[in-house]
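Example with several molecule types.
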Amino acid sequence: MSQSKRELREQRRAAREAAERADAAAATRRRRAWRLAAAAGFAAILVAVGVAVSASGGAPAPVVSTGAADVVKGIPEHDGVLGDPKAPLTVTEYVDLQCPVCAAASKQTLPTLIDDYVRTGKVKLQARTLSFLGPDSVRAAKVAAGAERQGRQWAFLESFYAAQGTENSGYVTDDFLRSVASAAGVDADAALEHAGTQDAQDALDRADGDAQAIGVDSTPTFTVKRGDGTETVLASGAQDPAALSAALDKALAR
Amino acid sequence: MTRAAAVVVAIAGLAIATYLTVVHYAGGEPVCAIAHGCATVQKSHYAELAGVPVALLGALGYLAILGSLARDGEAARTATAFLAIVGVGFSGWLTYVEVVELEAICIWCVGSAVCMTLLAGLATVRVLSPPAPRTARAR
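Resulting structure tokens for the full complex:
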């Protein structure tokens, strides 16, 4: 009988100790889980800060010179067509905003073309912004379409070239585009909003379709058309202004 | 076992990050299996965080993880998990940037992201597991 009581006591003690061990183990598991959750929480905060810095480029938005758009100052632009709508010749420049040769052409060739032919009413100038170089080109071309809606596409193109960065380096951020738009006198918010619309995508598709139709496979390519006539390639690549002038004079004389 | 595996993975990650850091400062292009993807990523502004190359930050992260693996206490395990979760979080962001923003894949960056993911998994297991019992030393 007494042995039975002792066994009972030992069994109870063993059960109590087992329960205490189980409680202690559960508490340890909870403590470890909390440690992990705390580590994950602090890590998430650190990652969020890092991502915010990374997404912003880690640097203030570039200051884009407003002078780049002066080349088209005072020239009317309607639906992306720069110059007198009654000009006999239409010159179309096929560009990719990331294309460094296009940027070079904007400095070397366009001033002569604009001053001698567009301002004088001989030529009206339009652009087709292609986007084959990469995702930065697509974003830039869509915002250019937004600038076109405001009658400031050419000012936007020239300002963009002046601030052009390394191809597909991810530099075409919203901050960058806002700086370019502001320098070009474009309402940046409206242009960026338009970039997200189907109309902006349609502008890119139209440019691609026109380029394919005439066989444009490099940028910049200049084409010429008299009235509603056939569009023909005038010149490709970086052009000596004198050579382009000669080709235009020839086209005007026809 | 998980600690030894974590050490091996951290050394592999450190090797990748060190290579990319050297290439960054040398101004060259990483050897890349996918056409120019590594160069595109390396030249992008995402390759630096507040002016510091992310490859260098990665190398420092792997070194810190290796340091935390030198001890086996609960604090050291938690530190490993914290570092690895930060690493896997930022690797996830950079992978998103590669695929969506840059449309270029850097195979070295993918390798590092895999290492960080493995480390985060191993570190989580270690935090939730009891420390190994100390073996008695023979006198």
